[in-house]
Amino acid sequence: MSPEKQKKAAIDVLKKVLVSEHSGFYREKYSAHIDTVDAIIKGSEEWEALPFLTRDDIQNSLYSDRLYIPFNDVRLVRATSGTSGLGILTIPRVRLHPAPLFDKQYLQPDSIKRAVTFSGAHCVYADNFRKRFNLDSIYLDPGDVNISSRLFSIYKPDILFGFPYAVASLLPHINDKELLKSVKVVSLFGEWCSELQWKNFEKHFPNALIISEYASVESQSTLCGPCSEIIKNKERFVHPFPDSVYAELIDPATNSVITEEGVSGELVVTVLRNPAFPLIRYKTGDSARIIRSSCSCGIGTSV
Ligand SMILES: [Zn+2]
Questions:
Q1: How many CB atoms lie within 10 A of CB 302?
Q2: DSSP state of 53
Q3: What structural domains does the chain harbor?
Q4: Backbone angles phi, psi at 30, to 5 degrees
Q5: How many angstroms separate the alpha carbon of residue 165 from the centre of ligand 1?
Q6: Beta strands in 30-148 (DSSP E)
Q7: Is 136 helix (H, G, I), strand (E, B) or coil?
Q8: How many A from CA of 39 to the centre of ligand 1?
Q9: What distances in angstroms separate CA 114 from CA 48, 142, 152, 211, 259, one per listed residue?
Q10: How far is the CA of 33 from the centre of ligand 1 (A)?
Q11: CA 222 to centroid of ligand 1, rounded, Å
């Protein structure tokens, strides 16, 4: 999807929110910006003038005001701070989105039988893989590393799913390092895996394919991930998933949009697929930069 189409999809989210009878949160937020919102709806290029959404906006609002859907349609309420260390956010969801599946040619599904996941929404991944690859799975609680490490040793998983911190917290408690050599895939998501963590995982899982995706509690969705080509080249870039997010980069000091390649800025996301509480121009607080490398995967968004 081209950036123009993604922007159009973001504007469609805005339109849907504004016609909903359950959109008090955004109506109030935009009350001083009616002219801007009108201009966007009418098709002029005013998107960049639309106010940002911040974590404080969410934190300081009533849960009921943020419900874009009728209360009875909420299937899941997630109350968590994720790994941010900030206060707890209460985020409604219609359902758990099926997580994007990786290209199976890199997973060698015949050799993957047992998955370990670390709590939270990771059960969705395990369920996807169970259905697609008929694999077995168990959940480990990173809060109890002693039991988790014992279960890990007995179960001997082929694939791990989890936040980088959760996987890292288990490593010192696995006494038999040979067990780690049998892990074939380490699938990380949530907070971005730092270079130091990445090197640590490469050292401890010498035979594993390491995949890192970007997701957040607020978006309740995986927003960016590597394509097959990035995985094959063992690079640490990610594509914004075109069906999931319209991504912008801003200068946090001036709030102006950055379009130059390689310049570091704050990632701003408009989530295209969470109808319970849409995020529109949400300032993630995470830093990113644009890389316009030519990628043969066909996803078509900058990495
Ligand atoms: Zn690609």
A1: 18
A2: B
A3: 3-95+243-288 (3.40.50.12780), 104-212 (3.40.50.980)
A4: -95, 5
A5: 26
A6: 76-80, 89-93, 114-117, 136-139
A7: strand
A8: 34
A9: 46, 18, 11, 17, 43
A10: 37
A11: 16
Cβ atoms of 255 and 280 within 8 Å: the answer is no
pTM, 2 dp: 0.84
Q: How far is the CA of 278 from the centre of ligand 1 (A)?
A: 26
What are the tens digits of pLDDT across the range 220-274? 778 888 888 888 888 888 888 888 899 999 999 999 999 998 999 999 999 987 6
User: How is residue 240 written in tokens?
Assistant: 């914004």
Alpha-carbon distance of 303 to 227, in angstroms, equals: 10
Question: What would the two tokens of residue 233 be?
Answer: 């080249």
Q: pLDDT tens digits for 259-301?
A: 998 999 999 999 987 667 889 999 998 889 998 876 778 776 6
Strands 282-288 and 265-271: antiparallel
- Asked if 262 and 289 touch (Cβ cutoff 8 Å), the reply is yes
What is the phi-psi region of residue 77: left when phi exceeds 0, alpha when psi lies from -120 to 50, beta otherwise?
Answer: beta
Helix/strand/coil for 154:
helix
Closest CA to 241 of 229, 225, 221, 218: 225
| Residue 209, strand partner residues | 185
Q: Token match 């209460």: residue?
A: 90
The residue type of 206 is P
Distance 232 CA to ligand 1 centre (A): 10
Cα distance from N-terminal residue to C-terminal residue, the chain: 13
d(C-alpha 70, C-alpha 92), whole Å: 11
Record the tokens describing residue 167, joined without a space: 């996987």
